[in-house]
Amino acid sequence: MQEIDQKAAIMIVIEQLGNVPAGTRCSAMLFDAERIRREKEFHAKLYRKNGVEDQEVIQQMVRENVREEPYWLVSLKFGDLANQNAASLYRVDAQTGKVLDEPKNQWMGDE
Fold it and tell me: What gap in Å lies between CA 101 and CA 67, rounded to an integer?
């Protein structure tokens, strides 16, 4: 199976959302093996900064919150002034083209 490209990832998100207003700025970045490795390092460092010391717990939290498979991180910035600096982020599986559920951020208290 061939990976989807940037334009396809953006269109998948737009189609799923339905009514995306004109003037919405869209971008997407591929999280390949190298970016995923750096994301894992970032999360591990963040968990340690937030007081998690047990290496096994840190590894489990990273596994639960960082995908192993490549994905597109799609950003939509809506054109109205109220949300000018706010972006909505969506993850799209690079192989299947499915929009992924967001991981639980246990260290931040999400249940």
Answer: 11
Strand-pair partners of 26: 76
- 3-state secondary structure at position 100: strand
Query: What are the sequence ranges of the domains in the chain?
Result: 1-32+70-101, 41-68
User: Are 89 and 73 contacting, i.e. CB atoms less than 8 angstroms apart?
Assistant: yes
Question: Tokens 């596994």, residue?
Answer: 63
CATH code given to domain 1-32+70-101:
3.10.450
- Residue 3, helix vs strand vs coil: coil
pLDDT in tens, 33-53: 999 999 999 999 999 999 999
| pTM, 2 dp | 0.78
Res. 20: pLDDT tops 50 = yes
